[in-house]
Amino acid sequence: MNKATERAAPWVTTALLLLLWWLIVAAFRIESFVLPSPLESVAALGIIVGCFRLAYAALYPILIAFNSVPKAALVPILVIWFGVGTVPAVITAFMLSFFPVVVNVATGFATIEPELLDVLRALGATRWDMVLKVGMPRSLPYFFASLKIAITLSFVGTVIAEIVAGNNGIGNVMLIASSNFNVPLVFAALLVVGTMGIGMYAIFAALEQRFAGWSVRGGGIEFAGGG
Q1: CA dist., res. 3 & res. 9, Å (int)
Q2: pTM over 0.70
Q3: Counting beta carbons within 10 angstroms of the beta carbon of residue 224, is it exposed (0 to 12), middle (13 to 18) or buried (19 or more)?
Q4: Which fold has domain 3-214?
Q5: What is the pLDDT of residues 128-141, one digit of tens each?
Q6: Whose CB among 46, 91, 126, 148 lies 3.0–4.6 Å from 106's, allowing a Cys bridge?
Q7: Rounded CA separation 25/31 (Å)
């Protein structure tokens, strides 16, 4: 076994375990209190980054560097590791949607008013009480806002991976159609992707209204007309 294989083995194993984790949770519809999905675990990472200054200082630069890497440039590497197919598309979608979820959840925790935390400490609340009763409700609007961004980015990542190294999927259909100058089919595929994106966005917007509707103030900002 050469050194390159040895270096790649931990990363490949980690990616396979994440994929297996997501498939198990989705296939058996396991409740989050039994086994959370990778996405929920990403949110948990955001909680850690937002709650602990040391974690924020240690992990935030790494997250910035990770998000700065063009994900399309990683698709050929994923193909070398996992082969052509669905796996590179899933991983690319995850890499694109990972950053906004973590950053937004961390922001929700990091922007809690210090006065509120002081009151809770005076009432004898532990750090865990603050996380459960203040931090998590406070971060819900940020979490759902990031989900609505992440779902659109995940479609972008999936289509890019299917175009670059897919043997099926909408991206592959667009690639074949464009090579045959079948422009109507290309636009049809774009409409399908847009429709799926709108549908997923609507689902997360409904969930946001259900679980974090209290954060929306009626009326919004109104500007008085001049004249």
Answers
A1: 10
A2: no
A3: exposed
A4: MetI-like fold (1.10.3720)
A5: 777 777 777 888 88
A6: 46
A7: 8
